[in-house]
Design goal:
The protein is of the alpha/beta class. The chain has 2 domains: 11-89, no CATH class; 127-291, Nucleotidyltransferase, domain 5 (2-Layer Sandwich), CATH 3.30.420. 44% of the residues lie in helices and 12% in strands. It contains 11 helices and 5 strands, in the order αααααβββαβααβααα. The chain has helices spanning 11-18, 22-30, 35-53, 60-68, 79-89, 167-180, 195-198, 200-208, 225-237, 247-262, 276-291, and strands at residues 127-135, 142-149, 154-161, 187-191, 211-215. Strands 3-2-1-4-5 form a 5-stranded mixed β-sheet. Helix 3 packs across helix 4 (60-68) and helix 4 (60-68) crosses helix 5. The termini are far apart.
Amino acid sequence: MIDAENGHFPVTMMCNLLGVSRSSYYAWKTREPSALAEENEALARDIATIHKESRETYGSPRVHFELNVGRAEGERVNRKRVEKLMRELGLCGRAKPKKKATEPGSEHSLVENLLERDFVAEEPDQKWATDITYIWTVEGWVYLAVILDLFSRRVVGWSMADHMRKELPLGALWAALGHRRPSAEGLLFHSDQGSQYTSGAHLKALEEAGLTASMSRRGQCWDNAVVESFNSTLKTELVYRTIFLTRESAQVAIAEWIECFYNRQRRHSTLGYATPVEFEERFYEEQRSQAA
């Protein structure tokens, strides 16, 4: 404080008021920073860089993991130290808003819930889950349909439009099938009971592709918790931080967030802090090693 106010008040007067000797102040001022202080300064720079590269979305767990990637066992940084430095820097993750349970809809289920909240898959393209969400822009609403592979939490198909008609989720389905081309029949395809998913066109498309339909129970948002969580993350980390003037600007930003950031850069706690793409690549690498 004395050093900060040196240009406004006499040093002697401030030392007397604060009960600090002038010699102590000048000794502090000329003292070289300790090794710990220098190390904390370097860590703070690294933490700030990681937080910025995460688009200011990472909290201390992901920053701590990223910071220790590539470090030897004895060189790893303690998580509490990361938390302390982040507090001092004023850095924090983007917290998700609390989710309220939805009221039961009027549509009757055409398909039973085969997923039964079992969100674990042993390999890619065993279980997909899908949902529709909406994004406000000055020009009007944009609707997004996404399909996630429950093995890796990767977005394998998505579609956006200015409407919620059946063509919206069908577009996401065609994108996923064109990108993944699952070979095994019986891939479980889970959705809610929205009219877009209960339509004859959508159920027929699933049947023709060899996918097995599954639907959440009415009013049970937790039956599709993984995609609900993805939608919440998208809105917390991107949508709520941005004012989109046009639908096109929203679509461009969301597409970039999904393909460049979420699938390939954002570390996922459920995957041991791997990214979805990295998690799948590890799986296929293990498969190749076992085959060899």
